[in-house]
Each structure stands twice: as C-alpha cells, then as structure tokens.
Amino acid sequence: MGKFGILVAAIAFCLSACSSGGVTVRGELTGFNGTAKMSAEMPGQGMVVLAEQQVTDGAIELKTTELTLPARVWFTFNNGTDEYTRDFIVDQVDKTKISGKGKYLDQMTITGSVLNKEYLVLKGQIGEKYDGAIAKATKAIEKLRAKEKPTTTDRTLLVYNQNSLEKNMGARFRYIKSLIEANPDMEIVLFVMKDLMKDSVDVQREVFNKLNIPNKTSNIYMVLDAELNGTTAPAATEATPAE
C-alpha cells in the first residue's frame, strides 16, 4: 500500500514539531470565570494535570514544560456549576489557541495543530468506510436480542448481522493496520494506533515495534512504549497554578 495522500503534507512538519521546550496555550472564552486545566497522559503514570489556571474574564494562558511534542492534551473548564473537557493534539509549542464563549463551552474552537486537523480527517475517512455498517449491524443485533419470542427469521437475521459485524470490524482493523504499516515514519499513525487498535494489544505491540519514527522522545511515542513494552519515564512535576 502506498503512502496515503492525506499524510504526505504533514511529513516535514511532523519531523520538526518535536520540541521539548515549554508549551503555551492561549485563548479567550468570553465571559468565562472559573478553573482551566491542561492534562495529558504521561508514560507509566496515567493522566496528569500539567497546568491549572484561575481564569478571570475569559483570558486563557496555560503553560507546561513537561511535554515533548506531539502530544494529546485534555482541556477542562469548570465555572463552579458546569464542567466541560475537550481533547486536542498539540504539535507546536506556542500555536494552540482556544476561542469561544463561556456560556457555550461545547462550542469552543481550538486551533493551531496540523496533526489534529489531519487526524480528524483521517479518522472521518475510516469512519465513513466502516463505521456506518458496524453501527447498522450493532443496532440490528440489539433489537433482535431484545425480542422475547424471536422467530426463525429473527434468528437467521441475528446470525447474519453478527457475521456482518464481525466482517466489518475485522476489515476495519486490517485497514488501520495496513495504513500504519504503510506509513511507519509518520507521527500521525501513533495517534491512530493509540485510539483505533485497542482490540488487540499483541498486534498493536507488533506493529509499534516495527515503526521507524525519528522522534522517540515525544509524549505520544513514550506513552505507547510504556503501555506496550513496559518502559518508564521520569515523573512529571506538579503543575503550578497560574494567577
């Protein structure tokens, strides 16, 4: 399988985005007053809060020196009544921007990442190819299993949909595996592997250990290495709340 066109444009960018310097996220959530947090999964540690800020009048500035990019982070906003969390792939140290209104946190916009944009497009393509059929079969199976007195036709349809579900899930998994194997040097496949190959840790480990990612110190690479190969990394320091 050749290189996927959607990934080619990101090659040079991904190889240059692996900074271990401080990461700063800025933004404006109009009218928001409350707590803002930036968290990330750290190798061998699970989820860690890397930065926390008491926000006044919506001005966001979250900083951490604990990440080597690229990394997926989670932004959590709490106004004392409601809490909202959004994940985002950060690939540059000072480009991530958050914008929106404090009253409508679910409509906020986060920008500044080529990898995040490419990942969402790629995930959407995979979903369009397989997820519709998987969802249809799953719904049919649930409906048929809920029948108190299934007919012979119902039992036949149940087997048909179970086979369809298994077939499409298998095809989806093989497609993702082939995609990763065809792009072994690109950091975007690390996020695809982390999210979409959970059905088989053994296959995940096999594919991961054959990758040729130049930057082996990024957060996403080290998180996967810790999960699949049992490697560890120094503990992250506690976040210092911003004023």
Give a description of the structure.
This protein is α+β, with helices and mostly antiparallel strands. The protein contains seven helices and eight strands; from the N terminus they run H-H-E-E-E-E-E-E-E-E-H-H-H-H-H. It has helices at 5-8, 11-16, 114-145, 152-182, 188-196, 201-208, 219-229; strands spanning 23-30, 34-42, 46-55, 59-64, 71-78, 83-90, 97-101, 109-111. The strands form two sheets. Strands 4-1-7-8 form a four-stranded mixed beta sheet, with no helix packed on it. A hairpin with a 3-residue loop joins strand 2 and strand 3. Helix 3 (114-145) packs antiparallel against helix 4 (152-182), helix 4 runs antiparallel to helix 5 and helix 6 crosses helix 7 (219-229). The longest helix has 32 residues, at 114-145. It is globular. Residues 5-19 and 234-240 have low confidence and may be disordered.
Question: What is the compact description of this entry?
Answer:
Helix content is 42%, strand content 23%.
